[in-house]
Amino acid sequence: MYESRTIRTKSNKRTKGVRFFHALSDELRVLILEQLRNGEQCVYTLTQTFNTGQSRLSFHLRVLKEAGLVIDRPEGRSVYYTLNHKAIREAEAIITRLKGEHSPLASTSSSTAVYVEPLRVPAYEAGPEQGSA
Predict the structure, then answer these.
(1) Nearest-CA neighbor of 5 among 132, 133, 128?
(2) Tens of each residue's pLDDT in the chain, 133 residues
(3) How far apart are CA 24 and CA 69, in angstroms?
(4) What does R_g of the chain's alpha carbons equal in angstroms?
(5) Which of 17, 8, 24, 33 is nearest to 116 (CA)?
(6) Domain 15-99 CATH (choose: 1.20.120.140, 3.40.710.10, 3.10.20.340, 1.10.10.10)
(7) In angstroms, how far is CA 126 from the centroid of its own chain?
(8) How much is the pLDDT for 18?
């Protein structure tokens, strides 16, 4: 029997840059970030804004949180999300480095400087394709 194989990254080995770009690879996640520019919002408000189910929205918020792009704050039975502005600055530094330009973060004072890991090629492993029987 033929076994389909794919190449995938080991998620626990992803660098900040990889997690950042993965989080931005879905249109709904980008829209969520744009919505959070207006300030902190609870999951219920976001489900109403995007007319989607709570479980689907929670999945996308978890991806954004794992990438460090949002911060959550539980309050009672609700969870409130806000942008993590420090992570946005780190992402800007990654993009600046990819463009080959000097990062403005390098010239800031040490109290506001952000360390950004060097870009690394992620480790790949071959494994069975997900969803195959």
Answers:
(1) 128
(2) 444 444 444 445 568 778 888 999 999 999 999 999 999 999 999 999 999 999 999 999 999 999 999 999 999 999 999 999 998 888 888 889 888 876 555 444 444 444 445 544 444 344 444 444 4
(3) 10
(4) 18
(5) 17
(6) 1.10.10.10
(7) 24
(8) 86
The residues spanned by each domain of the chain are: 15-99
Q: How far apart are CA 74 and CA 72, in angstroms?
A: 7
The amino acid that residue 6 corresponds to is T
- What pLDDT, on the 0 to 100 scale, is given for residue 102? 65
Question: Which DSSP category does 111 fall into?
Answer: T
* Tokens linked to 59: 């999945």
Q: Cβ atoms within 10 A of the Cβ of 95, count?
A: 14
d(CA 43, CA 72): 10
Q: What is the DSSP letter of 26?
A: S
The angle subtended at Cα 63 by Cα 62 and Cα 66, nearest 5°, is 85
